[in-house]
Amino acid sequence: RETGLPPGPPTLPFVGNLHLLPTQFIHYKVGAELKLGSGTAIVLTDAAAVKELIEKRSATTMDRPPLHLAEVVTQGLNLVTLHLYARRYKSCSLVPLRQVLSRYSEKWKILRRAAQAILTPQASARHLPIQQAEIIQLVHDLLRSPESFYTHVQRYSNSVILSVLYGKRSPRFETPETVKFFKVEHEWTTLLETGATPPLDYFPFLKYVPERWAKWKQVSKVVRKMQRDLYFTLLDETQERLRRGEGNGSYVEELVEKQKDLELDREMLGYLSGVLIETGSETTSSYLQSLILALVAYPEVQKKAHEEIDRVVGQHRMPRLGDLEHLPYVQAIALETHRFRPMTPYGIPHYTLATEEYKGYVIPKGSTIFINACEFLNRWELYDDPENFNPDRYLLTENGTKPGVDGSNLRPTFAFGAGRRICPGLHVAQHTINLSIMNLLWAFEFHKAVDPKGNPIEVDTMDYLSGLTAKPRSFKCRITPRSAEKAEIIELEFLNATAMLSKFEFDLCPEDQEYVAKLRGLAKSKV
Ligand code: HEM
């Protein structure tokens, strides 16, 4: 360990602290500075440090660490992982380094600029009608088969994002696009898991092991093919519909129309939109699964939310986004869920483009920076009883901190990252989240499931899957409609939503067509 670095645990020869990188609950296990192979990783556990280093000094901390697998699989076109120094060109004497660097940062700028097109609140608002119709299907699905809530939520998040991006929805969890997405996502995240491949980014010579001995190279090719098949089929279908004059205002249509101005070639267009499905789908569904888990574990929170929603929205109609400003407790639930179980507990790592100095410590150029949100969002000095799911804290102070404590370095949007890499899907995600919380709590009570002897089955709010995003392991719960009148309203609203949903039901496979027709027929017979 070089002098001047922040303190960290003892290192082993060659690997440094690589062996300490846990695969599960990473956020509870590591401290301030780690040596990863010959590289350095800094773990920020303080909101002031995030504000200073990731926001104010964003120009030098905006990069992502090199991820050779992403290079191989997406050939430098994954906006999330795009590393501005393309290592594979570094030693190439034919192309001057500066030219290569500027080509890469140019590519990132182009992709990011195009992604900003859905970042603005105005642009996101355009997609509200389909988001509003999709939440009605989720509520209807939960009414019909509440035991499948885990996959209903996954279908819903995936369908919202496919509708927003490509104008094409998924009415079932078994809809071919959704099945393909989950298959690709599974293969891709398995490949990226710590330990699944040799540490290629810390020991670059491993990249040159011939394919017959490096299974990861074969798997990478398969994943690349699967991703391209999904991304480019969806892109081609959207372009074809646009040519037929059957556009419905999706994000990709807008990109296609502005393709020249945005300087996007076909490859960039395909990957940009594809990567947005990847980032937008499971983040939102994991958030909603965490929310349901917390609601089951904390019935008193539901009670308060029910009282507020009944007072503002009443019994006779479903909530709309416009109700949100009159529902401070619901807004507090949204924030508390982000604090209680941040979706990316360790953020998505940043990487320094230049050496920085912070509070007397040196952060060398080329350091990976993790934001340990989970640690500082659970600090006893800042929060009252932080291990408790208690939305009331956000009614007392803006950032949920104890009254009298300085919480000015925190921000309610921290869950979406910070600086120049802040999540571009923030507004789309917040609309989905807010519509979901209001409607789920208007319609249902979430209880513990009971075993055959009638005893409640406890839920464990710490039982999460391994990985860099926080997804609760599948759990059991009982979801019941709050009244017979509400159940009837849900059937009626589901029928009324047909007009909007069917605008997004292009080229459905015969099974999907049969499914939506049957579902709507059933709803008709009930109203
Ligand atoms: C609950 C929902 C979501 C959460 C909590 C979330 C959180 C995050 C976080 C923490 C980052 C890293 C920011 C940083 O590096 O500082 C990020 C990046 C990103 N998110 Fe989200 N996100 C969500 C939903 C979405 C949605 C719906 C989309 C797309 C429509 C999206 C697209 C992206 C993209 C493309 C990036 C990479 C940006 C870049 O590297 O320049 N996210 N998100």
Automatic annotation (TrEMBL):
| Keywords, ordered alphabetically | Glycoprotein, Heme, Iron, Membrane, Metal-binding, Monooxygenase, Oxidoreductase, Signal, Transmembrane, Transmembrane helix
Keyword tRNA-binding listed: no
Q: How does it sit in the membrane?
A: Single-pass membrane protein
Q: Which InterPro entries match?
A: Cyt_P450, Cyt_P450_CS, Cyt_P450_E_grp-I, Cyt_P450_sf, Cytochrome_P450_fung
Q: One GO CC annotation, please?
A: membrane
Hey, which pathway is this one from? Secondary metabolite biosynthesis
User: A single GO molecular function, which one?
Assistant: iron ion binding
What residues form the membrane-spanning segments?
A: none
Residues recorded as binding heme, renumbered to this chain, are: 423
**Family statement:** Belongs to the cytochrome P450 family.
* Protein name per Swiss-Prot or TrEMBL: Cytochrome p450
Taxonomically, what lineage is the organism? Eukaryota, Fungi, Dikarya, Basidiomycota, Agaricomycotina
